[in-house]
Fold this protein.
Amino acid sequence: MKVIELWQFPVKGFGGSKKEFAALTPNGYFPNDRHFAISIGHAKTSNASPGTWFPKAHFLQLMSHANLAEYTCSYQVDNSKQKLRLLQREKSCLCINPSIASERKEFEDFIETRFTDQLRGKPHLMNSENQAYTDQSTALISIASKASLKAFANATNTSPDNRRFRINIITDSENVFSEAEMIGKTIKCGETLLLVEKPVGRCAAINVDPETACRNKQDYVSFMREYFGHSNLGVFAKVLNGGTISVGDTFRQE
């Protein structure tokens, strides 16, 4: 199966961007994926030591904050200089160096003005060097086929769109939910070796239309269970051996 898209979502809950390649490390996350999160003002997160993992209820996240779908973020590091860019409907809002306190505050102030009614206190831009703000505390990356995205879209009369599911690696497999058949198996691309561990169970975040940032009236999680017999789309994999993967590379089952 060929890699056709690589996605990085640098800030939890916010849209991300496509990448041409990704350098994976053993027992690591997808590079800089969910590297940041924005707390909704809980005292627990404000007082936590850097890198502490918290459940998603402590952060701005798509399941409960549908208007986040209007925003996307990109993140890059050039010569040790960090650049975090925030866009609203493809128009740039901010570009900061998150390692500089004054610029972090600028980002936090912007979020506070846009999401005032959805916060419990002062928002805090959190980041972790050794852990990601994914929905699970273990280091896993996500994989799905374009056939699975298309099957969901056909069944729900929507458009195939990974912004709804936020998968890291999209493959060209034409077999619907074929990724689930890889659970318990290893797949290899060059020197990169992954162990596919479990399915990605979907939550109410998929009810948010990535184009309109509105929540659909229909509960797609329940719909998936009725229509497909499950509410999974994609699988989680652990990196056993690191390496760089690029768009166009091929994964083979070991």
About this structure: The chain has a mean pLDDT of 92. The two ends are 12 Å apart (CA to CA). Helices lie at 43-46, 101-114, 146-156, 162-165, 220-228. The CA atoms of residues 142 and 167 lie 5 Å apart.
